[in-house]
Each structure stands twice: as C-alpha cells, then as structure tokens.
Design goal:
The chain has 1424 residues and is of the alpha+beta class. It folds into 10 domains: 29-243, no CATH class; 250-321; 328-399, Immunoglobulin-like (Sandwich); 405-480, Immunoglobulin-like; 483-553, Immunoglobulin-like; 559-633, Immunoglobulin-like (Sandwich), CATH 2.60.40; 640-715, Immunoglobulin-like (Sandwich); 718-788; and more. The chain is built from 21 helices and 87 strands. Strands 1, 6, 7, 8, 9, 10, 13 and 14 form an 8-stranded antiparallel sheet that branches. Strand 20 (285-288) and strand 21 form a beta hairpin. Helix 8 packs antiparallel against helix 9 (1140-1156) and helix 16 (1307-1324) runs parallel beside helix 19. The longest helix is centred in the last third of the chain and has 33 residues, at 1197-1229. The radius of gyration is 60 Å and the shape is flat.
Length: 1424
C-alpha cells in the first residue's frame, strides 16, 4: 500500500492497534484453526527473517542449487512479504496482482496484503533445508496477519523449492503447503505463477471465498495436488516448464518396423507417476494389454494414455508409429512350352502360399500381352497384395504348327469354257501354289483351258515362320470340244417377188462356217409363207447346230388423214377427207362427243371427239393401220345468280337462300362460318360472319359456273344471367354462388368473390360479380352479395370423447375443424394464463374493476371469483367474424364479439350468477381465415370469495388486451413461420393503398435540391427567397436559420454544462461535414438531434445510450425475433423522432442481437428487420422534409398561422407515414403480424412526438442560438457523382429486395424499378438541364405536392380496381401505373428545380388549409 493510501486509513489502523493491545494485555490471542499439518516444521525455515513488516522484501537470497524457471536458470530469488517470491527483482505490490499481466517471473503462494507488525503475528522467514533427502529452500508465511495490523484472522502458508537435478539440470519442484487460510482480501487470494508471458492461475484464484478454509469444497486446505496430503501442492518443473500439481508424463520407446505375418510382440510404456499406462492401436495393428499384433501392411499407430488418479492429473498421450512391410511369397510359372495356334499363348503363374488377396501380373518380353507368334519370350511373374509380394522368371517357347491343304476335285470341262477359279486352301491361311500338266495353264489362282485332252493341277504350301510345309495335293479332269453359238438373221421378211435367204453367224470366231437348209433344201424361198431353217457347224475344237423358222409377210399400205379443226359445242357438221397409199377406198368411224354423218363429222356435246380412218387391204396388201384424229370440243359458258339474307342473329330464326344457272342446270349451295344450311334455309349458329357459296359444276356441254358467294353478318345473341345461392352458412368448405344463363347451358360464365375466383369458405359478406365470356352470346354482368353466415352459436365437443371438453384448471384443449390441435398453456406474467398454438395466441385472466388481475393459485390453477370478470383476448380468427365465449359444465353463452381487421378479439365478460361454484371450462369459438372452426377450451375454478393471493395490478393499457407471451422461437427456426401467411393478392386494395403511399413518399423525398442543412432566411423574420425542395436521400432538410445578436437565455443556463461536452460539440460540427460526401443520409442523421445537443451538452449521450439499451431490451423481449412488441415499437419510434441518432443506435443494437440470435431465418425476416429498424430513425427526417421543424419567432398573425400549419402538417405526415409503414410490414414479412393491429396507436404517438419536437426545436432556436451555431453545421458539402450513382445502385437493390415481397419477379417489377432509378440518375446530372424559375413558382411543393401525389395515386388505384377484377393483376400492374405520376413529376421538376417562391398571403394560406383538408380526407380513404 502506498503512503497516500496508508494516510487514508491511519485512524482506522490506530483503532485496530488499540483493540489488539487491549486483547494482548488481557492475555487474549486470536484462535488458530486446526489445519492439515501440511506446513513443514524445520528450523532451517526460520534461519532468516524479514522482521515485522508491511510490504517488505528480502535481498536476493542464494538457493544453494540452480533452478531453470521457464528457460532461464536462477541461483537466487527475492522473498516478498505479501505471500510471493520473485526472480530478478523484489516486488512490494500488495493488491490487484494480475499474474497474466505481471511481466516478471513470480510464484504467488497466497498473495494478499500481509502485515506482520501486530505482536500476535509471526514475521516472514526463510532459509535452506533438506526435504525428502534433497537440498531445498524454505519460505514461511506462518501466522501472518493482514493490513492494517490485522491479527484476528491469521494465515499460514509455506513454499519449498526442492532440487531435482537428478532428473535433469535445473529441474526442481515447487511445494506449496497450506495449514490455515482464514483471511482473504475483497478480491480473493491470488495463487499461481508466471514467467512474465506464460501463466498458471490456480482454480479459484481471485475468486472471493474460493480458497479460504471456510470453503469446504475448494478451499486449499481441503484439497491437495500431486502429493496425497491435504493442503500440499507439488509443481514439478522439468526442462524449465512447470507442471500443475499432480502432473505426470509417459515414457514410450518407439518400436521398430516389422514384417506382416510376424509373431505378436510386447511394448513397455511407463508413466513418471508409476501408474499403469493403457494402450490403444490404430491402423495396421491391434493391441491387447501390452502385446501388439500386426493385422495389415501399412502404418501402425500406438497411443499411450494415463488418465491420472486422486494425486496425479492425466498425462499427455504419447503416440508412436512403425511400419508393417509385406511378407514374401514363392511364384511358379507353368505352360512355358506351347505350339502356335494363332491365339495368344499365356503362361499360368501361381503362388505358394496363396494369400488370396493379391494380384498376379505376368509380362512377356516386357509386355503385359501374351505372344501369339512362334518364338522364345522372356517371362516375368510379379505377385502383389496388401500383405505379400513375390516374383519368378522363365522363357516361353512357342513351336511352329503343322498345316494341310484342302483342294476340291474338278468336273469335266469343254474347250472354250470360262477360266476356272482354283480354290485350294491351307488351314494355316497361307497362300497356295499351283502347278499344271496337259492342255491347261494356272496363273494367279485361275486355270485356263488351252486344248482338248487330260489336265492335272497340283497345289502346294511351303510354310512360314509359324508353320511347317504342307503335303502337295493333285487334281485331274478331261476337256471335251467346245460348243458353238449360232445366230440367224432375216427370219422375218416382206414379200417383194425376190428370193429371201437367211444369214448365219457363228461364235466364237474361228469355229468354222455354218451350212443352212430351208425345209431341207439349200435354195432360199421366194413366195410368201413360213419355212423350217437348219444351220450346222462341226470343226476340230467346236461343234453345234440351230433350227429356226423363216416368215415372208404380205406388203403394207398407209393412210393420209389431216388433223381436225377446233370445235365448240353447237358448231355445224364438217366434211372428212383421207387417202390410202395403195389407192384403195378409205372408211371413217367416230367416238366421243361427235358422230360421222355421210363423210362429215357432227359435234353432239362437249368433250373429246375421235375420228378414225380405215383400209382393210386385199390378197396382195395387208390392212392399213387405222389413223385417228381427235379434237377437244369446248363446252359452253354458264353463270349463276345467288340471293342471301342481309343479317342473322344467334338464337334468331333461319332465312332462305336462292340460286339459279343460265344453263338450266341444278345449283348446289354450301355455308361456312357462323351458320348452317339445310333445305335452302340459313340458320345462325355462332357470332361472326356466315358465308354462302353457290356452285354449278357444269356437264358434258357446259363449263362449271364461277362460284357466287354472299357474306351475312351474324350478331351475338342476348342472354340473361341469374345468380342464386346468395345466403349460405359457413362450415369451413368453399361456398360458391350458383350462376345460370337463359338460354341454359351457355359456357364462359365466371364468378368472382371480392375480385377472387376462389369461392370463400370463411364467414362474411362478399361482392359477387357474375359475367358471361361467350363469343356467341352477350349478357349484362350481375353484381350481388354473397352472405356466408356463421353457424348458430353452440359449444364444441372434445373429438376424443364426443362430450363437451372438461379440462382441469390449468389445462387446455384446442381443435381446428373438429380435429385436435396442439396447444401450450403457461402462466402469464401478472396473472392468468397464456395459450399458444398453430396460428393463434390467447390470454385468459380474471380481472377486476380496478384493473387488477387475479393470479393463479398455489397449484397453478386459473381461479375466477364472482368479484372478477373473465378477460379473454385471442388471435387467429378471420377478420370481422363472430366469436362466441361459453362457460360450462351446463353451457352458458356469456358473450359474442366481432374480431377486428386482423382477426383478433378481446372481451371482458361477467360470470353468470347462476353458474355454480366449482370446476368449469371456458371455451372460445370462432372461424379461421380458411373457414375452419377454431375452438380453444381452458379449465378454471369458480369460487365465491376472492383468492387470498394478492391481485396483480394490470399495467396501463393492458386492461384492453392482456398481453399474450409469444413462445421463444426455436434455434435456427424462422421466427415468422408460426404466423399466418400474408398473400398480397388477398389484400389487393391494401397493397395498392400502400403502393400509393410509398410512391407519394418517394415523390416528396426525391426532388432536386441542395444539401443545405440550415439554409433559409438571412435575417430574423425575413421571408424566404430562392428555395430548393429538401430531400432525405441527399441529406437536406428545411430549417430556417436565425441569427441573434448576443446569446439566448439557454446559452447562459446550466442545462448544457451539467456534463463536459466540448469534445461532443467539436464532433457534432465537424463529423457530418466529413461524412456528407460519402453518406449524406448518415450526415443528416448525425445533425438531426443538434437541438438536443445544444440544450443538453454532454448529457445528450443519454439519448443514444437509451436507444442502444431499448434496442437490446427489444431484441431480448422478442426472443431474437425481428418482430418487436407493440409497446417497445412505440417507444423506439418516439425516441427516433426526438433524435435519429438514438433511433439508429437502437436499430443497430437490435439488428446485431437478432442476427447473432439466429432470428434472420429467411429473406422475409430480413425484410421485416429492415422495415422495423428504418421506422426508428427515418420518421423525423421524413417529417422534416415536408415542413420545417424550426422557424423564426412568429411576429404577426400570418406567422402564427404558418407555424401552426408546420405543427399540424408535419405531425399528420409523420403519423400517416408510420401508419402506412407498419401496415406494409405484413407484406415485407410475408405473414400477418400482430403488430399491424397497433398501427393506429403507434401513429398517434408518433404524431404527438413530432408536435412536441417542433415545440422543442422552437425553444432551442429561441433560447440556444449560440449553442446551435456551435453544434450544427450551416451547410453540408455535396457528395460526388460517383458516390451518388453508387448510392442509387444500392437503393435500387434495396428497392427490388423489398418489392419482391409484394410482387414476386414479374416483368412489372423490373419496369417499375427502372422507373424508380431513371429520375434519380437524371437528378445526378441536373445541372445539364435548363432551369426555369417561372416553372418553379407554379409547381406544387411540400404539402400541396404531397396531397397532389396522394390524390393522383388514389384515383389511379380506383381506375385499376375498375379495370382489373383480378387482384393479383391489380397488384403487379398497379406497381407500374402508380409509379408513372411520380416519374412525370420528377422529370418536370428537373426543369423547375429552383426559383423565387410567392410571398405569403392569407388567401394562399387559406387555400393551403383547404388542400391539407383534402389530403387528410384522402389519407382517411374518403375518395376510395
């Protein structure tokens, strides 16, 4: 303890000394507790003394032997009074010893502020001793007191350094002995050692109460380490490294490598403690006890373990490895002598022994493929297996194979036959040689006959490298005379009065001439007729004959007949003229469309006409070939006349059709299109056009008439729609209205229910539209109302028993659609019970008139007395449906309530006086969004008198709806999964309304403008001149700067001096200016709370601190879910309105905890997290864009009107933005959120907070002008174009990420995104566009712009609803349509982005008030 510290305790020390002296004078000494006698009593331990001292130390004392402590060898040490020894230098520290940070070698035996100045204490002593027969050095802290002069609780500890150089140079033991530890400082005793970098801290060190004697579990005298003696702890220091008490090591000699199949062998690991060592094996061996058995080839790993016992801790395992090599086998080769056969000749290789688990590889002259050809080949067989290997070598000899020749015999041949193909073959496949004798030759495998006689052919094969020579084979045959071929010419001739000889040709040439006879005579005949002709050849090598018939025919004649001229049906007959070459008379015949009349042709009809001329011949002349001449007699032309109706109507009467031909031929009629034709009556069938075609195909005399067509329009028929079944009872199944038509059976009838095609199943009233989409019929759509009423109230039975549920108090039962459903019941904080199940939460409690809630009784039962009402709140029902609450045994309906727009219900219901006391069941019945009946029953106990247990006061607001505790989400589960799914198409009107609000907010926050923060008037009370619209994305907002002469009252007050704030003031002024070029939005957030920093100074830090704490509490209370409770959501929205930095701190803390807790289980939960967090810091920025939070102090009535308008408009805009944003969270999360039911309440709180902030801003501007100048920059620098473009890209990504939750990914999403990006990109290059100050004056700005955009969006939404019945189409197409007004307005603003505003006047302000009223009406849905 330092001198300064002692002076502070001087009086207390004197008082203690006086007290101790009094005790000593009376002979009273502090009692010593009985210890374990761990401290060694040896006179050497008291050889040297530090004397009575506080914080003293010895000089360096020699140990008498060297010690190696963490790699450094020391021969001496320093003994310190406060329970420690050090190496290198003394240490007089007395408290707060942190071994890990000490920095020098130290051994702390029992470190605390030791004080031995009191007479009842013993000074610290030390000296050399012999311990266990070894040199040692002893230090005693026996019966030592504590600062200051404390002697009522004495401690006794001892340190002995024992020389263990027999185990290695510098090795020693640290023996720490403890007999009594009655005192400890406030932070506990410190025990351990440190080298300055490496540290050991004894368990319990620095923990109050952990090591003192009073702790019978972890007290140092209650345990031991490495000694077996209570209070004694032995630290072995080997090689400079201390081992904690009881440490041991294992010595394990490494075994050498072995061969597979060898005998098991022993190993001998030992522990330094002498305790038995256990072995485990891995890899190619097993171990049993200390015997190792090889099981495979490879690496064997042995691990030695010693788990320790009561004295020794577990030793570090020691691992040894060795290799197991393969065993040899003998390889034998068989089949080394073989004969060539054209196939591969493989050798067989075998092993002895055969391990059965290997692969034999045989190579032949280095190749793995066995040889085929004859010859000698070196062979090598190699066997390889996981456990064995071996080789063998030899020579494979493949001998040449014998071969034979197959040679078919020849049949007899004739001279002149074709050459013969020789077909002898050797079975070796080798080519065969041919040799001949006689009148024949062989060449190239072809035998040629050269004469008549005997021919012999011999086939032979001489062999090759793989075959021996074959035995020759001879074949002989006879050759006879060759046959000749005789051909006769002139066998058919015409009589001409001369002889008619025949000519003979003989082949082959040179075979000789042929002799010819005619009916046996060699003289050729002359007369016409037929004759037998014989031709004969007989030579030395050829012979043959041929018989034929010679015919002499009569002479021919011909007719000359000219072509017929063209003709048409109806022409006059024409004369015929023809001549025969013989001069004989010619006759005529006619066929087809004409006839012969006295050597003339007459045309009797249209078509082909053929006239033929004939001459029959005589005795000397043959009949002439008839000659035919033809002509195509053309048909006459005809025409058709058609008459058809002018118009037909589907469902109307048929009309007649008439058609005639000028040829008098019958006309055929056909109809196509929307009609049918029968018996000249045209009947309408389908709307469109009807085409009638009249055709006359003609006949033999008349051509087909040109088709005549007539087109008659067919109008759709008029039908009538009827809708019935409009009053039904909901039972969980879909209930459709019945639409019929007159006439009946028409197709294309569609029925929608509130714009959806799915028939509703839940109770309610639905707008039914029946329409006819039929191409042939039209009908006026019928609009009606389908009323699905809930069934009459009746209690629900238990599906398991068929009786009414009778759960015991504290138990519950749930059913959905008559089937059991899971339900969890738990006590609610503040009284009553909560019930949770699939898709619902509920709370039931007994609540009094004074808002007190009755707690559960001691058995955990729900108790209700007659002085309390039953409070019921529940979610999970269909919106705007009836819920019934029953009490029974005998059922009593105690109330019916209608659910709100979110399907939640709450009620306080009285207990009927007629209900007897005792056990009852409370049952809540209603229908879900799908129409199924949901029933929840909970048991309760009805008593006459109030319970003895004190009632719990219900927090403010909780009497409306008792809080239902949501179960903590499962780890790694999506916290939103238990909530009902939100389907945008089922809430099309709400989604369109949200889209209108979103694009309105985008339009008013994305206008062109500067980044001025405090820009505005230049003097107090002056009107604005040149202005630009503010926007959040550029970091700008509208505040009017006031310059005061001097300071305000607040500047001179103490409010901002309570805590130091100079550093904060400098950062508030400088940091936003540095950040603005990179992140204008963040710079805007940092300047948002400047008015609070001006008024509070350093105390402002409480705001972001409160935000961080509230964000953490919200995350914890929501169990890591991104969905906060309504109360905390309200608090954080209000906090962010007062200071965006506080809201941002809350959002960052909340988001970090939710992310770490696994609450972001899906993209839906991520979108919900972003939406929730944005609400905590963006509302104040948004409201500040619409109206300024701070203006000059009003001086006239018009100024007060304007200031009031600021409060009204900014507050309403902020509240409206909060309401719409919370409503949009359902779509972002993809689920129906309970938070949506509190949107109005949170919006009202936001409205109030904004109004309050405007008041505070006004106070700050009036009272703290100098402070505002000190903490708020007047202007923020612009960001560069690159940064702005990057920011636009990031916003586009966020825009798509959020919008996907409502639309999915249709083409409308990408078109709308492009429309979102285009004006922002153009605003980056706004300086390239001309500015028209006159246009600026006439453009709507601020609230007028807001109302204008709201009205345009609302009217566009109404147009969508009128045009599109399909809700899904309305949602996706509305996204594009509703973005167009904002796009157009942004583009116009580029050309009128700045200029002079009009002067204030009462007419303009009153007109602005009317516009605000219209905006309020639009926000309330008046125009919807």
């Amino acid at each position: 303890m330092t001198f300064r510290g002692r002076r502070a305790f001087r009086f207390l020390a004197l008082l203690i000394l006086a007290t101790q002296a009094a005790f000593l004078g009376l002979g009273v000494r502090p009692a010593a507790a009985a210890g374990p006698d761990a401290v060694v009593t040896d006179a050497g331990c008291t050889t040297n003394s530090l004397g009575r001292s506080d914080d003293g130390s010895s000089g360096q004392v020699p140990l008498g032997f060297p010690v190696n402590f963490f790699g450094t060898t020391y021969s001496g040490m320093f003994v310190n009074n406060n329970g420690d020894v050090t190496f290198g230098s003394a240490y007089s520290g007395f408290s707060g010893l942190n071994l890990a940070a000490f920095g020098n070698p130290i051994v702390a035996v029992a470190f605390f502020d030791v004080d031995t100045r009191a007479p009842a204490t013993t000074p610290v002593s030390h000296g050399p001793i012999t311990y266990a027969g070894r040199p040692a050095y002893c230090v005693n802290w026996v019966n030592v007191g504590y600062f200051s002069n404390g002697a009522d609780r004495l401690n006794s500890s001892q340190l002995i350094l024992v020389d263990r150089s027999e185990t290695g140079a510098g090795n020693f033991d640290l023996v720490m002995n403890y007999d009594r530890l009655a005192y400890e400082p406030a932070g506990g005793l410190t025990v351990g050692y440190s080298s300055g970098t490496a540290t050991y801290v004894h368990p319990g060190s620095g923990v109050p109460g952990a090591l003192v004697d009073a702790n019978t579990t972890t007290g140092l005298i209650r345990n031991s380490g490495g000694s077996g003696h209570l209070g004694r702890y032995v630290y072995q220091v080997r090689g400079g490294q201390p081992t904690p008490p009881g440490g041991q090591s294992i010595d394990f000699p490494a075994p050498g490598d072995v061969t597979y199949g060898g005998a098991p062998f022993p190993v001998s690991p030992t522990a330094t403690s002498g305790l038995p060592v256990t072995l485990t094996a891995a890899g190619a061996c097993t171990v049993a006890a200390s015997t190792v058995t090889v099981t495979a080839v490879g690496t064997c790993t042995l691990t030695a373990n010693q788990p320790g016992d009561g004295t020794y801790t577990a030793a570090a395992p020691v691992t040894r490895t060795f290799q197991v090599t393969k065993a040899p086998v003998s390889v034998s080769l068989a089949g080394l002598a073989q004969t060539y056969d054209g196939t591969a000749r493989a050798v067989t290789a075998t092993t002895d022994p055969d391990p059965g688990n290997g692969v034999m590889a045989v190579t032949y002259d280095g190749s793995a493929l066995p040889p085929t050809a004859a010859g000698s080949y070196p062979v090598l067989g190699v066997y390889t297996s996981p456990t064995h290997d071996g080789t063998a070598a030899g020579t494979l000899v493949v001998a040449r194979a014998a071969q034979t020749i197959a040679f078919p015999s020849f049949s007899a041949r004739r001279y002149g036959d074709n050459a013969l193909r020789l077909e002898a073959s050797a079975d070796s496949g080798l080519p065969v040689r041919y040799d001949t004798t006689g009148p024949c030759t062989a060449s190239g495998g072809t035998l040629t006959v050269t004469g008549v006689g005997q021919c012999t052919v011999t086939a032979s094969q001489a062999g090759d490298a793989n075959h021996t020579a074959a035995t020759p084979v001879a074949r002989s045959f006879a050759i006879a005379k060759g046959a000749v071929t005789i051909s006769l010419d002139g066998l058919s001739q015409v009589y001409d009065q001369a002889s008619r000889p025949v000519t003979a040709t003989v082949e082959p040439a040179g075979a000789g001439a042929a002799s010819i006879t005619y009916d046996g005579s060699a003289t050729p005949p002359t007369a016409a007729g037929t004759y037998r002709v014989v031709a004969t050849v007989d030579g030395p090598r050829y012979q043959g004959s041929l018989t034929a018939t010679l015919t002499i025919a009569p002479a021919a004649q011909a007719i000359e007949f000219a072509d017929l001229a063209a003709a048409t049906f109806g022409d006059a007959p024409r004369a015929l003229t023809a001549r025969a070459s013989s001069g004989l008379p010619v006759t005529f015949t006619a066929t087809g469309s004409c006839e012969v009349r006295t050597a003339a042709v007459a045309y009797v009809r249209g078509g082909a006409c053929v006239v033929t001329a004939h001459q029959a011949g005589d005795a000397n002349r043959a009949a002439a070939t008839a000659v035919a001449r033809s002509v195509d007699v053309a048909r006459a032309v005809q025409s058709v006349t058609l008459t058809a109706p002018r118009r037909l109507t589907v469902g109307g009467a048929a009309d007649t059709v008439a058609a005639t031909s000028n040829a008098g031929l019958p006309v055929s009629l056909t109809a196509s299109g929307g009609c049918t034709l029968s018996a000249a009556l045209l009947a309408p069938q389908h709307a469109g056009t009807c085409t009638v075609t009249a055709a006359q195909p003609g006949d033999d005399s008349w051509l087909p008439a040109a088709a005549a067509t007539a087109t008659t329009p067919v109008s759709p028929g008029t039908a009538t729609l009827h809708v019935t079944g409009l009053a039904q009872v909901a039972d969980g199944a879909p209930h459709a209205a019945v639409a019929s038509t007159a006439p009946t059976g028409l197709t294309g009838v569609t029925v929608t229910y509130d714009g959806l095609t799915t028939a509703p199943s839940a109770a309610g009233t639905f707008r039914v539209v029946a329409a006819l989409d039929n191409p042939d019929w039209v009908a006026v759509p019928v609009v009606a109302r389908l009323s699905l009423t809930q069934p009459a109230a009746a209690p629900v039975t238990d599906p398991a028993t068929g009786a009414r549920p009778a759960p015991a108090p504290g138990a519950a039962l749930s059913t959905v659609g008559g089937r059991p459903a899971a339900v969890t019941l738990a006590p609610a904080a503040g009284g009553g019970v909560t019930l949770t199940g699939d898709g619902f939460t509920a709370a039931v409690a007994a609540i009094g008139a004074d808002s007190t809630r009755q707690p559960l009784d001691t058995d955990g039962r729900l108790v209700v007395d007659r002085a309390h009402q039953v409070s019921v709140s529940m979610t999970g029902f269909a919106p705007k449906t009836r819920t019934d609450v029953w009490l029974f045994s005998d059922p009593v309906l105690i109330g019916s309530e209608t659910t709100d727009e979110h399907g939640a219900v709450e009620a306080r219901l009285a207990v009927p006086a007629s209900l007897p006391t005792g056990q009852h069941a409370l049952q809540v019945n209603g229908v879900t969004a799908t129409g199924a009946q949901r029933s929840v029953s909970v048991g309760l106990l009805l008593v006459d008198e109030p319970a003895v247990t004190p009632a719990v006061t219900v927090p403010a607001g909780a009497d409306r709806r008792p809080a239902v505790a949501a179960p903590a989400p499962a780890v790694d589960a999506d916290p939103l999964a238990a909530l009902p799914e939100y389907i945008p198409a089922a809430h099309a009107d709400a989604v369109v309304t949200t889209t209108v609000a979103g694009f309105t907010l985008l339009a008013i926050t994305a206008g062109a403008g500067s980044v001025a923060v405090a820009g505005g008037t230049s003097s107090r009370g002056a009107s604005p001149t040149s202005r630009k619209a503010g926007k959040i994305v550029s970091g700008s907002a509208k505040h009017f700067k006031e310059q005061w002469e001097g300071t305000g009252r607040g500047d001179r007050s103490f409010t901002w001096r309570l805590l130091p704030g100079g550093w904060l003031d400098k950062r508030s002024l400088a940091l936003p200016q540095r950040i603005a070029p990179v992140s204008p939005l963040l710079a805007r957030i940092l300047t948002d709370g400047s008015y609070l920093r001006a008024m509070l100074g350093g105390a402002w830090w409480a705001m972001p601190a409160a935000g961080a704490v509230l964000g953490a509490v919200t995350a914890v209370r929501s169990h890591g879910s991104p969905l906060p409770s309504a109360g905390l959501m309200l608090a954080l929205v209000v906090l962010g309105i007062f200071d965006a930095v506080a809201g941002l701190a809350a959002a960052a803390t909340f988001a970090a905890i939710v992310a770490v807790s696994g609450g972001i289980g899906s993209t839906d939960s991520l979108r919900l997290l972003l939406g929730v967090c944005a609400l905590w810091f963006a509302i104040a920025l948004l409201a500040g864009v619409v109206r300024p939070f701070r203006r000059p102090t009003p001086r006239r009535g018009l100024d007060w009107w304007t200031r009031g308008a600021d409060v009204l408009i900014a507050s309403l805009m902020g509240g409206w933005a909060v309401q719409k944003s919370i409503g949009a969270l359902n779509g972002l999360a993809g689920h129906e959120l309970p938070l949506a039911g509190s949107a109005n309440r949170i919006a009202l709180a936001a409205l109030t907070a904004i109004a309050t902030r405007i008041v505070l801003e006004s106070v700050a501007g009036w009272a703290y002008p100098e402070r505002l100048r000190a903490v708020r920059p007047e202007k923020l620098p612009k960001s560069g174009k690159l940064q702005r473009l990057a920011a636009i890209g990031l916003r586009a990504v966020l825009f798509v990420f959020v919008t996907v939750a409502f639309l999915g990914t249709p083409w409308q999403l990408w078109v709308g995104t492009a429309l979102f990006i285009v004006p922002q990109v153009l605003s980056v290059y706004e300086d390239a566009f001309p500015n028209r100050p006159q246009l600026f004056r006439f453009l709507p700005k601020r609230i007028i712009k807001t109302v204008f955009m709201m009205l345009v969006g609302t009217l566009s939404g109404l147009a969508l609803a009128w045009l599109l019945d399909d809700p899904a189409a309305r949602v996706v197409n509305g996204f594009v349509l509703l973005s167009l007004p904002g796009l157009a307005f942004s583009l116009i603003e580029l050309f009128g982005r700045e200029g002079d505003e009009r002067e204030q006047s009462w007419p303009r302000e009153l007109a602005g008030g009317a516009v605000v009223a219209v905006g309020i009406a639009a926000a309330l849905g008046v125009f919807s």
